[in-house]
Recover the amino acids of this structure.
């Protein structure tokens, strides 16, 4: 007749520990993927902002040159 395992014996069993470790690793892996996506989104946003600022400064400079040439 098989004896029923107590809760502490069940928690200390190898299968239980492996299951929890693999679950933790999966969660860490998914967190890392999300973190990488957020980092990529942030970097893309910074690139777009720098480009926009560059375009804005260029347009402002061109407008100033145009205004100076036309005596505005």
């Amino acid at each position: 007749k098989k004896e029923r395992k107590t809760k502490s014996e069940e928690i200390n069993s190898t299968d239980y520990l492996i299951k929890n470790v693999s679950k933790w690793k999966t969660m860490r892996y998914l967190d890392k993927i999300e973190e990488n996506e957020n980092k990529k989104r942030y970097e893309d946003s910074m690139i777009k902002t720098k480009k926009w600022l560059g375009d804005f400064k260029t347009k402002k400079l061109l407008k100033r040159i145009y205004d100076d040439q036309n005596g505005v």
Notes: The two ends are 101 Å apart (CA to CA).
